[in-house]
Amino acid sequence: MKVITANFVTCAVKECKTSPTSFPLHFHDAELEQQELNFQPEFIRNIIPRIDWEGLRVTANELGFPSLPESKPEGEALNNEQTLQDLHRLLMETQVMEGKLICGNCGHEYMIKEGIANFLLPSHLGKRNIINQQEVMLANAPSSLS
Amino acid sequence: MEYLIRLAQAHESFRLPELRALATRADVDLEIISYNDFSPYCVVKLQDETAARALISRSILGKDILELWGQGVNYEELHADVKRRTQHRWDDYQTVPFAFAVESFAGKRSQTTKREIIKSFSYMAFKGPIRLKNPDEQFCVMEEYVADREISARGGEVSTEPRRIYLGRWIADSSRAIMPTYDLKKRRYISTTSMDAELSLVTANMALAAPGKVFFDPFVGTGSFLVAAAHFGALTFGADIDPRGFRGRDMEGVNKMGLVQNYQQYGLTSKFLDAFTSDLTNTPLRNIPFLDGIVCDPPYGVREGLRVLGARDGKGKEPVIIDGVPAHYRPGYIPPKRPYGFEALQKDVLDFAVRTLVPGGRLSMWMPTASDEEVEFPVPMHPNLEVVDVSVQPFSSWSRRLITYRRLPEGEVSDVSLARRKDDKQGVRADDLNAFRRKYFARHRGTASEQDEKEAQ
How many structural domains is chain B composed of? Predict the structure, then answer.
């Protein structure tokens, strides 16, 4: 999982999504790998406005990167080659290969294995309203189905 | 200025939607002057040659674009139109090396007749050398006859004379030549549900994939759509409820991932962002507008009943502890899945798109329908999404549609009065929840329930 992706995900538990403490998910026991990729300044420039800068600062810190500037680069700063290169390296070229992402709200741990994060929830954390609806459906269904 | 686009005679109902999408993406004004599903020749009005090049460059269903020098229902009319439109420009082409060709759609001409047709344009007095290979300018006479397919579909009579004739000066080719590169037969990692190269690329065009943009596929599988979007320059990532789809069997490490191998094959590795395991109904993606495009072919539930996470019987709301460790943290834990309605799934895709697309961002989604009962499967709608285009790919007893939506800016809403109003209330089996699946199996081989039982065995 790349650092950029971590900035766009939060806890999959419905109740957590609205809680400010669920974002960003916290990396634990992260094993990093750097992969060199073509530098695409156009993309970095487009994506920065959509990045949650505070969240990225927390993530970068947890992964042991040098501190990011306090405020998000805007305007002229987006034409600074070095700034874009640094962000490219952090967002695009840094991958977490093994480790966990932990929700600061409910404490649920999402595993990352071989670079792939698993956000499937165990059934007790799934979408409540659907489970209830399911019960309604079952109540009306013929018993032979169960 | 008027231009003529030569279209591929394939996936006809996708051709104009693709051109319109490309015009939007290239920011050019496009006016369709004449178009017929049964003809490859489409006349359009564009501002200038630059606009024409920008429009055609990424087209998959268009072959090339020509400057229209004249048209008519017979040669007399054509010659008069050519003189009227282009007489003042003939001098410019006096000495350039050129080629002059005649093609007949759904008709035939002998070599002798073709030479006579070419000679009939001698009044333009081009004196440059004739070069069949790499000419500076190419002119083409295009004869359109009435195709047999049109006669059987619309009636009419077979004619030995063309219905319409055009003369064009070639300007630029499209991207159609890249199709063989992305041919599934040559792709490293595919599955039975991989979308073919042509329609994947068209889907990416419909969603306006372009450099600098972020694209997502929530049912990524082997990544057919993402690879296509990446070809057009978008940065792409995907998710799937079943990671085996994008991992592949022999994966060791992220760069051996089946999906990533496809990007490597096409030299698109830097366009790959990520793939993760998740379920659209409990997606970890944040509710913020950050996606430029969503491209997907949701599972129809034909090959297997649809499933999402959750217990079928409503049980399992308490965590299970095994040897002091929560079962869901133990290796090899497989979360339970429950049947899921096809209509509910589409609604979830639309809701997801509304939450995550930037204003003007697009969702291009495939959905199946029984051929003769389209009324029963209205296009799913959402007030925050505008339906941009709907195209149909017909098969013998069913068809599938590509529906493209645009995320409206806040404060604008679309008319959803024609939308389906159906919830996932009744039924618990896959076919109770999926009218398409029920009909598909009713027609093909018994009922979907029988299929379920077969699967269970």
Answer: 2
- Give the mean model confidence (pLDDT) for residues A61-66: 93
- Give the pLDDT band of residue A133 (cuts 50, 70, 90): very low
- In a shared domain, residues B216 and B344: yes
Task: Give the pLDDT score at B317.
Answer: 58
Quick check: A2 contacting B, CB < 8 Å? yes
pTM score over 0.90: no
Cβ–Cβ below 8 Å for A9 and B214 = no
Which residues, 6+ apart, have CB-to-CB distance to A82 below 8 Å? Answer: none
Contact residues for A74 (Cβ-Cβ < 8 A; gap 6+)? none
Length, in residues, of chain B: 457
Which of B130, B158, B174 is at the close of a domain? B174
In a shared domain, residues B451 and B305: yes
SS3 B2: strand
Indicate if B27 and B149 belong to the same structural domain.
yes
Which token pair is B38?
């049964």
Please give the residue range of the domain that contains residue B134.
Answer: 2-174
Distance from CA of A86 to the nearest CA of B (A): 16
Region B326-345 average pLDDT:
67
Check: CB of residue B271 under 8 Å from CB of residue B235: yes
Q: Are B81 and B72 in contact (CB under 8 A)?
A: yes
Does the domain made of A3-120 have the CATH classification 3.50.50.60? no
Both B371 and B267 in a single domain? yes
The angle formed by the CA atoms of residues B248, B251 and B253, to the nearest 5 degrees, is 140
Answer with the one of B122, B140, B174 that is the final residue of a domain. Answer: B174
The first and second tokens of residue B179, run together, are: 């199709």
pLDDT band at B251; cut points 50, 70, 90: low
Q: Are residues B264 and B214 located together in one domain of the fold?
A: yes
CA distance A74 to chain B (A): 17
CATH number of B329's domain: 3.40.50.150
Residues from chain A that touch B237, judged by Cβ atoms under 8 A, are 5
Does the predicted interface ipTM exceed a cut of 0.85? yes
Report pLDDT digits (tens) over B397-434. 778 899 999 999 988 888 776 554 433 333 334 444 45
